[in-house]
Amino acid sequence: MLIACGGGDDTDTGSEPVATTGGDEAADPGGDGDDGAATSGEDEAPDEEDDGMSCVPVSRCHSFANQDCTLVDGDGAIQGEQFSSGSVERACPGERGVAASVTECFDYVEISDGCRRRPELRNAEWPCGRTDTARCGVVM
Hints:
24% helix
């Protein structure tokens, strides 16, 4: 259908498919569809990096069993109301309450309302990250 719209059936020049591809990206009036696509891709990545937010796992009483993630801003403030009662913590190897399996420091949000006991903190068993569909979530 794109070929019928472009009228490129009769000509076999290499510029027709490029023009057709550029036609799909009609928002770029300069005709350089490739440059526009690279620019928009570059614009999206810095926006995510520039906001200063980190996506970190959420622990309840030193357990990551619920597989939650949340955003934390550059000042250490938890974003979103769901985990606002928690606190941003940092776990490092060799610290008291941190399992020997932890080999490098990581940040997390601790929700410790009504904990009866707190086992040794281990690494989360899933990765948290920035996603396209949600601002922060479990990524597999």
